[in-house]
Amino acid sequence: MALPLVSIVGRPNVGKSTLFNRLISEQAALVEDLPGVTRDRLVREASWLERPFLVADTGGLAGEDLGPWTGAVRQQVETAIAESALVVMVIDARTGVLAEDIEVAELVRRTAKRVLLVANKVDARTVDVSDGYRLGLGEPLPLSAAHGLGVGDLLDAIVDRLPTGEAPEVEAPSLRLAILGRPNTGKSTLLNRLVGEARSVVSTAPGTTVDPVDAEFSYHGQTWVVVDTAGIRRRSRISAHLEGRMVTRSLEAVERADLAVLVLEAEAGLTEQDARLAHRVIERGRGLLLALNKWDLVSDPKLTIREATDRIREELPDIPFAPVEAISAETGWHLSRLLRKADLMRQQLVHRVPTPELTRIVQRLLAADPPPAIGGKRLKVFYATQVSIRPPTFTFFANHPQAVSAAYLRHLERRLREECGMPDIPLRMVLRRRTGGHRDEV
Fold this sequence. Notes:
about 450 residues; alpha/beta; six-stranded mixed beta sheet; 11 helices; 16 strands
């Protein structure tokens, strides 16, 4: 039994995203006083009176022409309504009912879905919401999403109208996959190909995706969650406040993910911005998978996948372990290879090495290739243990943790990836001093 979906719809700039954030109790949707900020369906879980349900924020219907996104946004909204158990239509109580509101109401009525009409921006008791009766959707429920006034009454009304039944147990995803990259590299096309539906608006215009969009799909019986994120541009090009927040959201998506797929245009290869983003992923201990997208559009017939991969290796010399896969998200070419590699990386991210085995490996590596002595002191590891996964983190208890260079630690990390069956992911290592019963982290 899936959680029931409640979709928030309305014309642009009536406060849908503000209400969405209020219902889910977090700032998941960007809120700007600009039409068209929300384009994709953004779905999050909410709960009220111990009743869990899903809430979808949608793009504004009618209103201003959004250029190449107009038709795709409308399709996203219509899909959300079709999947909904309940539709919440929002109007602006201060402006009253406009022609665009009537158009949205007609669309909602044609679906025969249960509807709650919300008159938003009622920040004073003197605001009259009776104009909303003209839409024929029942009594308008007054509230102020910005200030939280009346939101409790709305939540009561929502759960009263949701289908009854036992709340299902929600399965934790086996993998959270963030899709990153510069604008127009094919990130949304890849997401849509993976989940098998037009979940994210696809356009050739840069900047189409604003909010990260979570979507589930199944891979060999496992539940995976994929997050499509806003295209990250160079800092010099982030002039608008909104786009700066889009970058922040993309990096936050990395924090919520286990593995990041960095989508590159095969023809362009790795840019300086891509390299910086790759390092940000590794710094956060996340797996990194590089996808050379649009390989079918490469104009140089002599360029091979091996040559393109070698170029990336040369440009990322300190991340030699990150796998590279050439794909075409548009046609689906080699996506199965990408998913197989992602699954192998998932297994490595959750792999645990028993303490006795890890201690033997570390001591053997140190004996075969000991680090140079520093200040007359030579490193000795008494034992090693894995303290966490996602990413695998190892703690070494040693006599003189400071008696080892950063270069040697990088060498040791490389050997540990090989010995512990984790060749494609970053590892974290912590050295702690052990002298008798006293331990100090260094």
